[in-house]
Amino acid sequence: MVVGGFIVLTAMLLAVVPTCVEIGCDIPWPSLPNIPKIPDLRDALNRALSVGANWTQGFLGEVKVALGILALSPFLFFRYHVYFLTPLGARFLDICAYYNPTAPNQDAIFCVEVKTGNATRDKTQRAKDAWISGLFGFPIYEWNV
Predict the structure, then answer these.
(1) How far apart are CA 59 and CA 95, in angstroms?
(2) In Å, how far are 14, 26, 88, 109 from 91, measured between CA atoms?
(3) pLDDT truncated to tens, each residue of the chain (145 aa)?
(4) Contact between residue 53 and residue 85 where contact means Cβ atoms under 8 Å apart
(5) What distance in Å separates the CA atoms of residue 23 and residue 13, rounded to the nearest whole number?
(6) Can you name the residues that pair with 93 across neighbouring β-strands?
(7) Other Cβ atoms closer than 10 A to 20
(8) How far apart are CA 40 and CA 42, in angstroms?
């Protein structure tokens, strides 16, 4: 029930923040010490909402790509955020397709890195992808949504 309580608390804060910011008041929680002032709280909420919006945009992009691939080949099995260990560190590829649902990660047919908005793969991601693709022999595509 913590999640539900968090949602209710967030909704209450969002209802209070715009009106309090306009008049410069504090959230009225006198019994709780060290509650941040409204501008600090507003910045924290904006950051949290921004991260949430980016996550949601990325998730919806992954779903869109997975549905597109599934429409082309309904006999494939998919895994999401598939882990590979490289010499440069861990790499989680967004979507990997398999013929067999129990195949090990390295037996992928192909993998897709989904990018939404203005996101791009950085040099480290590209280097990890090249290493994975070279070692295991499957392509890794970037799909911009």
Answers:
(1) 11
(2) 36, 43, 9, 17
(3) 344 443 433 444 444 444 434 444 444 444 444 544 445 555 665 666 666 777 788 888 888 888 888 888 888 888 989 999 999 999 999 999 999 999 999 999 999 999 888 778 889 999 999 999 999 999 999 988 8
(4) no
(5) 15
(6) 82
(7) 19
(8) 5
Structure tokens belonging to residue 143:
């799909």
113 vs 142: CA distance, rounded Å: 5
DSSP string, 36-95: PPHHHHHHHHHHHHHHHHHHHHHHHHHHHHHHHHHHH-TT-EEEEEEEEEETTEEEEEEE
Q: How far is CA 141 from the centre of its chain?
A: 18
Contact indicator for 13, 45 with CB cutoff of 8 Å: yes
| Residue whose pair of structure tokens reads 């390295």 in the numeric block | 106
Nearest to 136 by CA among 111, 100, 102: 111
Q: Is residue 121 within 8 Å of 74, Cβ to Cβ?
A: no
CA 145, 89, 127: angle at the middle one, nearest 5? 55
Neighbours of 58 (CB within 10 A): 17
Q: Are 142 and 113 in contact (CB under 8 A)?
A: yes
Which residues are CB-neighbours of 35 under 8 A, at least 6 positions away? 26, 27, 29, 41
